[in-house]
Amino acid sequence: MKVFIILGISAVIAFTAVFLSFLQVGKDILFAEVLLGLHTSFHQTQVENEDNCITEAIRKASSLVDYAAHYTLKRTIQGRAIATPTLLLAFSKFPEQESQDISQAAERMEMSIQVLKEKVCQKHKRSLHPTDFLSADLLTMIANISGCLPYMLPPKCPNNCLANKYRLITGTCNNREHPRWGASNIALARWLPPVYEDGLSQPRGWDPSMRYNGVQLPLVREVTRKIIHASNEAVTEDNLYSDIIMVWGQYIDHDIAFTPQSTSRITFLNGMECLMTCEKQNPCFPIKVTTNDTLSAGMDCLPFYRSSPACGTGDHSILFGNLSALNPRQQINGLTSFIDASTVYGSTPTIENKVRNLTSKEGLLKVNVKYHDNHREYLPFTDQTPSPCAQDSNASEGERIECFLAGESRASEVTSLAAMHTLWLREHNRLARALKSINNHWSAEMVYQEARKIVGALHQIITLRDYIPKIIGPDAFNLYIGLYTGYDPTMNPTVSNVFSTAAFRFGHATIQPIVRRLNAQYLDDPELPNLHLHEVFFSPWRLIKEGGLDPLLRGLLAHSAKLQVPDQLLNEELTEKLFVLSNNGSLDLASLNLQRGRDHGLPGYNDWREFCGLPKLETQTDLNTVITNHNVTEKIMELYQNPSNIDVWLGGLVEDFLPGARTGPLFACIIGKQMKALRDGDRFWWENDNVFTEAQKEELKRHSLSRVICDNTGISEVPEDAFQLGKFPQDFKHCDSIPGMNLEAWQEFHQEEEICGTPKSVENGDFVYCSEFGQSTVIYSCQHGFQLQGEEQITCTSEGWNFEAPFCVDMNEYEINPPCSPSAKCINTKDSYKCLPADPYKLAEDGRTCIGNACELAVH
Fold first, then answer.
1. What CA–CA distance (Å, rounded) separates 831 from 640?
2. Catalytic annotation on 254?
3. Per the CB 3.0–4.6 Å rule, which of 64, 151, 476, 790 could disulfide with 472?
């Protein structure tokens, strides 16, 4: 019987996939009709057997999740011209394809078990515990059908000398025993067990009847309004650090952590749009507001989408753990955890291929072909057009400046962040050109990988040497991080949930409400007036059309960061005007942060203090010992009643600073522990043996963020330490006095070439030199869409190369994994394929999306 059930499940999933492929994107399909069709279809084929509830559960759950994703895609396409704050947030938080696939697979599995427990099998009067009626084998099969299982299997690590020379773009195989540690698209690490209201996945604050220490948790929006919100005028300037320290914090956070939201925008069970309902139902977890709240736009709530679950967690985690115990829901990190400049290069091969210039002989990254900044490069535009970024109201008809394309999807959020991304794009290309000039025998692939390796090392140096000590202070740095003693294979470098969701968001309280742009004398420029922060959200046009990088970077270097003060936390640009591009609503960053912590099941403030070995705080008097602003502690106790109820992000934010720090003891502990894990658990950390030569390490240490600015902009005078606040001109130095790397330390001579000659290049592929056991080895690879034929690795011997060079052949995707619907004909093309429809079709505005029965869609 089990075989028939499994076959039945497989058939149902296949039917659902085919059925959904024929849905017409351009037509409104009532969710009730879909449910009715599924219900009728099921009862026509229902077998009178209790085990049939499994088939129905999988069928319903998969259809609900897949329909929600389809509906979301349709509405996104239809509404692209309306840049609402919610759409902008969704755009920047939307995962790339692999993360999407994992998210939807996990949601199918989670919904399957939920429907199984709550809807279907109750009529059979079965126990609600799924392990009572689902065997491990059957659960594994369900996971496989949902698409989850492949992501739970350990990856195959390459066994060649390149695996020790360059890190994989996904971060996998950094640790040979634990190849997924630190990789992209795995669950964030848990340092304490999560606290969910149902013990599995229901967020804190979901059930209004739930009590914590005898009281209900306060509404997050009320916490914002009564404790966190500060006016734009209520800003205390930081007397030590410049505004660029805030930008670096945001930028490096985007290098190591990105938690994608659910890809669906409607509730799974009844198809209600999250924008239009205040009902708590996955994936919607709306933020309740009071009637006089200006952000509510007539609604009783603000929309909020839960983070994507990770495969193998939530209700379905029984597949991969103890079958008698359910493991709680976890969230995905879409990026590699490592400080590896994934902001520049991406965290998956798909993104990496998008940002690379694969036709360049110098290993360059793509640049903008339409605009330049005084002959310097800009980031290219995203290929998702029209993108939701703001446009210049004075632009000529038909002129558009799209969102930027970078290794990380949030590059266009604010102009300062876009400037930092642009700076490192230029630095990669500068290094690549220089490396090629001194190593003309290097292939484009080798130049790219070496430049990428240097850029990653500079990110590590600037962060651990120049940034983190200023944030957590010297005492906490020595206590939690200390001196480097080498790679520790027992250290898990995976970014933790509490670090990503709470501690490293301390920087939101250091954001200035005003953006300043200065001229070459570091003075205000009348042609480039000050802007409020909300005027630069998703506005690449301001960078391109209003002076380029230089004025903006000067403003960041010469003005102070906002000081994080307990009664001046987040200014109104963030709490009242987040992502507002017109009069179409707004969001509140503080409430989003608090709600996200509850969504992720983060334990409360006192739990984390105990984790860090800090005293538990029982009363307001206790709170007053770590927060000297007693007015703030009174407001906190009024809302939370008990210190243990305080959301960890808020608690850490209001603590008094440690000496020489910009955080209190709790966040210093969490940030310090995370940075040590990122450093010591990284096999490719720049200081580790055999990553760089001793001569190269010495040159890397000479470099700095100030030098990067000197080398890649028109700015000629900078502070020696870009993060240190100084006055112009006395505290600034000419770029001629700012030290930098001598790349001759990377010059390489291959005596073996006298015997073997330069390796043969291959069309649609490339090679990299790699020395192993005293021999010169060459390893070949093919571009995306091509497959290697022949030997991947050839070695130089006394008699020449031991093998002929391989070649790259175009893959026939249809033969490998049929990508088109059964009704369409799949045609192989160079490096891709096309699905040719059997039925008439019509394309949407983007020229790619089908709004008829079928369409010709090039898949890249």
1. 58
2. yes
3. 476
For residue 47, the tally of other CB atoms under 10 A from its CB is: 12
pLDDT of residue 816: 53
What is the fold, at CATH topology level, of the domain defined by 753-810? Complement Module; domain 1 (2.10.70)
Strand partners, 859: 833
Q: Per-residue confidence at 837, pLDDT binned at 50, 70, 90?
A: low
φ/ψ (deg, to 5) at 811: -75, 145
CA geometry: angle 700, 702, 703, nearest 5 deg? 70
% the chain with pLDDT above 70: 76
From 43, 124, 129, 254, the catalytic residue: 254
3-state secondary structure of 195: coil
pLDDT at 761 over 90: no
The 3-state DSSP class for residue 650 equals: helix
Q: Which of 369, 367, 451, 349 is nearest to 405 (CA)?
A: 367
Mean pLDDT of 784-792: 87
**Hey, which residues does 242 pair with through a beta bridge?**
560
Cα gap 460→362, rounded to integer Å = 24
CA atoms 830, 359, 747, 762: torsion sign: positive
d(Cα 684, Cα 453) in Å, to the nearest integer? 9
Give residue 579's pLDDT: 60
Closest CA to 200 of 390, 327, 31: 327
Tell me how far apart the alpha carbons of residues 12 and 108 are, in angstroms, rounded to a whole number: 13
Distance, in Å, from the CA atom of 844 to the CA atom of 490, rounded to the nearest integer, reads 51
Residue type, 334: G
155, pLDDT greater than 50? yes
Query: Which phi and psi angles does 406 have, rounded to 5°?
Result: -145, -175
Find where tokens 């930028």 sit: 251
The domain spans of the chain are 2-153, 270-304, 753-810, 813-859
Average pLDDT of span 714-740: 97
Q: Cα-atom radius of gyration of the chain, to the nearest Å?
A: 27
Number of neighbouring beta carbons within 10 Å of residue 658? 19
Q: pTM of the prediction?
A: 0.87
Instruction: Confirm if 251 and 420 have CB atoms less than 8 A apart.
Output: yes
